[in-house]
Design a protein that fits this description.
Elements lengths: L7 E5 L2 E5 L2 H10 L8 E3 L4 E3 L4 E4 L2 E4 L3 E6 L4 H4 L7 H11 L17 E6 L2 H10 L2 E3 L4 H6 L4 E5 L2 E5 L2 H10 L8 E10 L6 E4 L2 E4 L3 E9 L1 H6 L6 E7 L2 H11 L1 H16 L5 H10 L13 E5 L14 E5 H7 L6
Length: 337
């Protein structure tokens, strides 16, 4: 049996049922005595990608769809009155309900335990919705689940998390909530970097979210007409996260943020590179004796910011020192005296 044909399916008590609507699947589960109000917490460990995988259900080989949820409910059977094992009477009832012939005794040797439910769908977001509609509770909002199931694009705005499996869908989801990156905006303080695995888990609102490896962060400032018309036209921070650097660059290019990032960096350089006042230069020259404070050279001297301007340094005498060209180049943008 190929379950990839159905939008949704469940395997419960060794019987398979496929459907094209969640409500149809719920109705079948209810008829078979399954409660939709279990409120059992589940996490990413209960989900996996199973596209093309085959299992045995009774004596029948079954080909699973893209992704699957599997949960052993044995510790919870008392909560909704299920017997410890699937009885012969229940098998006969299922056969009557679905118009199938009762299985032979050999089918009691299950590859899936009696009290394990398996839910599947052709799409990761559809599977998560199905699991919720069947009475389970997602821990931490289910964000880690979607990442595990191959959702490769993530965005965070105002403690709202967006997850999609392709670029266009992510940008459209942001737009639907008032965060239109393709309108008149400018950005400030853009940053793009690889985040080590130990630093990816962050708190967003009341939930924890695990970032994908590559992250872009910036403050978005609506401008022009949009700033006067849309209620959410106020500065906000956005974080975009993807599985790879190439994916992140695709998001930035599609949304136009790549060009805005270049513009923001150019503007930042123009804004913060104020000339050092002459009186500060004179004071520093006398204080440092007209020599490089690192090697003592008197050739090709330059006025260096101890704390770089890009890191918030000022052009006061306490933050200026004399360095020769060679020492200044080796120091770069580091805070080294």
């Amino acid at each position: 049996m190929d379950l990839e044909y159905y939008s949704y399916y469940h395997i419960w008590r060794n019987l398979i049922c496929g459907a094209f609507e969640i409500t149809d699947l719920q109705e079948t589960l209810l008829k078979r005595g399954f409660s939709l109000k279990l409120n059992i917490p589940v996490n990413s460990n209960d989900f996996r990608i199973t596209q093309g995988e085959e299992i045995m259900v009774g004596t029948e080989p079954v080909k699973l769809s893209y992704c699957t949820f599997e949960k052993d409910l044995t510790p919870f059977v008392g909560r909704f009155g299920l017997p410890d094992r699937r009885t012969k009477e229940e098998i006969e009832y299922d056969s009557m309900l679905f118009g199938t012939k009762p299985s032979a005794d050999t089918s009691y040797k299950f590859s899936i335990t009696d009290n394990t439910i398996l839910l599947g769908a052709e799409d990761a977001k559809d599977l998560v919705e199905l699991v919720v509609q069947c009475g389970f509770v997602l821990q931490d909002g289910g964000y880690d689940i979607l990442s595990k199931l191959g959702i490769n694009y993530l965005a965070i705005c105002d403690d709202i998390v967006f997850q999609e499996d392709y670029v266009e869908a992510l940008i459209e989801s942001l737009k639907d909530r008032g965060y239109n990156l393709m309108e008149d905006i400018r950005i400030e303080q853009p940053s793009q970097q690889f985040v080590p695995s130990e630093k990816r888990r962050i708190k967003v609102g009341k939930n924890f979210v695990t970032l994908l490896p590559w992250v872009f962060v910036a403050q978005v400032i609506p401008t022009g007409l949009i700033a006067n018309v849309i209620s959410k036209a106020r500065p906000y921070w956005i974080a975009l996260s993807t599985q790879s650097e190439n994916d992140l660059n695709n998001v930035l290019e599609y949304s136009g943020l790549d060009k805005l990032t270049v513009s923001a960096k150019e503007t930042s350089n123009k804004i913060y590179r104020h000339p050092i006042p002459d009186e500060v230069k004179l004071f520093v020259w006398k204080r440092d004796g007209g020599r490089c404070v690192r090697c003592g050279s008197q050739i090709n001297l330059e006025y260096d910011h101890i704390i770089p301007l890009s890191m918030g340094g000022s052009s006061t005498s306490r933050n200026i020192q004399l360095l020769c060209e060679k020492c200044n180049r080796s120091k770069g943008a580091n805070i080294v005296k």
